[in-house]
Sequence to fold (292 residues):
Amino acid sequence: MELTYFQTFREVALRQSFTRAAEELGYAQSSVTTQIQKLERAYGVQLFERFGRGLRLTSAGEELLKIAVQMLDLYQQSKEKLTQQGGGAISIGTIDSLASYYLPPLIQQIRQKYEDLAIRLHPDSESAIVQKVKEGEMDVGLILEHKPSDPALTWITIKEEPLVLIAKPHHPLSLLKEVELSHLNGAEWIMAEVSCNYRIMLEKLLRTSGISYRIGLELGNPEAIKRCVMAGSGISLLPKMAVEEEIRRGELIGLPFRHPEIRLDLQLIIHPKKWMSHSLLEFIEMLKSTTE
Fold:
């Protein structure tokens, strides 16, 4: 069985689409389909099933993916040990705000040294990223979290990432020298999706403090949240990295709100038994060297 088939299988599993996997690999879609069919015949099982317009792994497919990831990792390890080069690929599980505002310059920096290195970003929820790093589907995870949620993994705190309460200019709360929790009573919020760590943290604080609130909109993308705040009367809580440019341009304002329970750290997650290529090790050192 050709190793290429397992690479194709991994791409289809990660992207949940034959079409997107074909685009990523530079194959015709028919070639991807043929490779998956050959794997299914070789193992005598169905690897994918359709749901709606997408694909998902069967239980057999989930088991094969775990093995395929290890096989491809070992293959990359053997190549690098023999050639002492830093090509290959790095897969990073992360959240939208980090993928958009934090990682791009670091990715360009590592690729300047390793021109053949492919970086694959996989935005997902924090809990899903932790699980995928644990199962070996991702090389590393990079999320915003207050404290480690899984002691079986290695957690490295990169830095604290401030959270900023934002509003459009001339919002009534902007007249206050300091925004207290009580000032937020009855406020309209534009919230991130329910699985978002900083939304969970914020709602817990509001509820335990007896602060009533109303969710006007719920959006999964920081860019969409910012635009809705600019256009409406709601307020929102986002990482500083996601809003500092709009605040600098005067399109948004950062309200003078501070609370000890509203804080997150940029956390790097690694499986303790993960084999590290030269390029991955250097990328991790780049992450660890970043500061506020």
Summary: DSSP finds eleven helices and twelve strands in the chain. The longest strand covers residues 154-161. Residues 15 and 153 are 25 Å apart (CA to CA). The two ends are 48 Å apart (CA to CA).
